[in-house]
Amino acid sequence: MPATPRENLIRAARRQGFDWIPIDILLCDSQVKTFKETYGDIDYFDWFGVDFRWVTLTEHPGYQDVRQLFKRETLPADTEIDVIGVGHSKGSEAAYHMTRMHHPLQGCDSLEEISAFPLPQFNRQENQPLFDQVTSLHQKGLAAMCAMQMTIWEAAWYIRSMPDLLMDMMLEDEKATVLFDRITDYAIRRVRLYTEAGVDILSMGDDVGMQSGPMMSVELWEKWIKPKFKSVIDAAREINPEVLVFYHSCGDATAFIPGLIDCGVDILNPIQPECMDFNKIHEIYSDRLSFWGTLGTQQLLPFGTPGEVREVSLERIRTAGTKGGLILGPTHLVEPEVPFENLVAMKNAALELFPRI
């Protein structure tokens, strides 16, 4: 009996073989428009053969008034405030998802203000639709994956600002302790609800890499962030020991891989080829990690030819081998400059070696 998409994805992520190569892809608005003009009004996840769907819990901002948040900054008129209280303003429409961030606790010297900062609120009762959605996906044979990125480090620095938070960490200031503790508690409450709902993959992560290397020392990460992140994973696995943990970090995250494995990470994303060597990382860690992404959105996909995309895709698949451990896809959101033919080449390469029946 053929595997369901959910079964195929989970087996591949556990390196237990597969029937077809799982694919992941996320298109920006203009790429969605191009897709619909070419293929009609259908779900592009269906067309690419994506084995999972995203699910999201319902939560509400903890703040009532933006003035309650930004006591030290006057925001631009077009600023949007997200659910955790961080402001985002665009320089232009051409910036797409790139925004200038406004950090509500930047410049804050008050431990009391940090302790009282209003984090989002949610409850089980209003999230019955999440439980129903996961059940429905499973009935359709699809896996459910939740978005919990910005898990610890990013959520904290988005609120505090990176310079202020790094200074707090270096000085071992109690302000860092309080903020990380509160963010961790928030993440644990979210991960418990997602796991109780039955999600198959917890998509977590924090960007800890830059293009040229680690964003901070491994020692600093291990002291401040690793124990908090591990406690979030442990909370999920108390409910479901089999839930898969996906970790995202842009940039060069190579130095953090052993620590992420210690925390319980199963899948690493995206293995950015402009600064990480997939073949080397696969050689060292493929018995303990699976890899999600790997096709560069800085060089290969926007500037390569369909033939080049095909060859790199085939190389990734052959390197992973028949045990799996590869979910093939772009390393980030597919931006407008990527020729759609290159995305088709990625899909066709996966089907070339392992046709989907």
What are the defining features of this structure?
seven-stranded parallel β-sheet, TIM Barrel, 15 helices, alpha/beta
Structural features, described:
This protein has a 7-stranded parallel beta sheet, with helices on both faces. Strands 2-3-4 form a 3-stranded antiparallel beta sheet, with no helix packed on it. A two-stranded antiparallel ribbon has the order 7-8. The protein has 15 helices and 12 strands. Helices cover 43% and strands 13% of the residues. By secondary structure, the protein is an alpha/beta fold. It starts with a helix and ends with a helix. Strand 10, helix 12 (278-285) and strand 11 form a beta-alpha-beta unit. It folds into 2 domains: 5-59 and 122-353, TIM Barrel (Alpha-Beta Barrel); 61-116, no CATH class. The longest helix has 24 residues, at 174-197.
Shape: globular
CATH-derived topology of the largest domain: TIM Barrel
Order of helices and strands: HHHEEEEHHEHHHEEEHHEHEHEHHEH
Provide the β-strand percentage band: 5-15%
Unreliable spans are none
Distance between the termini: 11 Å
Summarize the topology:
Layout: H1 5-13, H2 29-39, H3 44-48, E1 52-55, E2 80-81, E3 87-89, E4 100-102, H4 111-115, H5 128-139, E5 143-149, H6 153-160, H7 162-170, H8 174-197, E6 201-205, E7 209-210, E8 213-214, H9 218-224, H10 226-239, E9 244-248, H11 257-263, E10 267-269, H12 278-285, E11 290-295, H13 300-303, H14 306-320, E12 326-330, H15 340-353
Parallel strand pairs: 1-5, 5-6, 6-9, 9-10, 10-11, 11-12
Antiparallel strand pairs: 2-3, 3-4, 7-8
